[in-house]
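Give me the fold.
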Amino acid sequence: MMDLSVLNMQVITCRRCPRLVSHREYVATERRRAYREETYWGRPVPSWGDPSARVLLVGLAPGAHGSNRTGRMFTGDGSAEFLTPALFRAGFANQPTSQHAADGLRLDDLYITAVVHCAPPGNRPLPQEIVHCRTYLLAHLASLPRLQVVIALGEIAFQGILHAIRAEGHDLPAPTPRFSHGVKAALPGFTLLGSYHPSRQNTQTGRLTAKMFDRIFQRARDHLA
């Protein structure tokens, strides 16, 4: 088990993936017009939340003008606008907004990480980039001593968890769990729940509704109870 602050310092200083380093720094230099006067984070985004959490939320990667700008997972973009109110309704967050790293948001019994810690071009990390970041995912899984539930947001995050379990030499249930919204699988050490990612592509088309999202967090609560 590694101290989470030490682990996150390793994340922040990582330069393993040249393509991601180039992209995140380019975006931080060019900036979007709406944020022209802001200083972007422009580095790997650390995980954050309650160190004693029983629930781990796993996303895909930082948004170019969201977390890559603010320096905090699911902060300052459309995904945050959908996710944070759901966490608040479920009792995992103290407020329904996540706009910047000093906005007072606190997480209770929940920790947030991602399968990739740098903003990828087109929001699509390459397979090898996911492999490079797997070290950090495994370390986070091992560094949350009370972990019981992992919620994977999207298929890439879901598969990332399964690959991480295999990489540790553990057997998966047969048949191998397949991603779908609401899928539940018992894995070594925790229960895995799958959810559609709260991207605008999903939320604005109705593929993921607030009611559907609330059910995921209620299932997590039911499992903890």
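The two ends are 26 Å apart (CA to CA).
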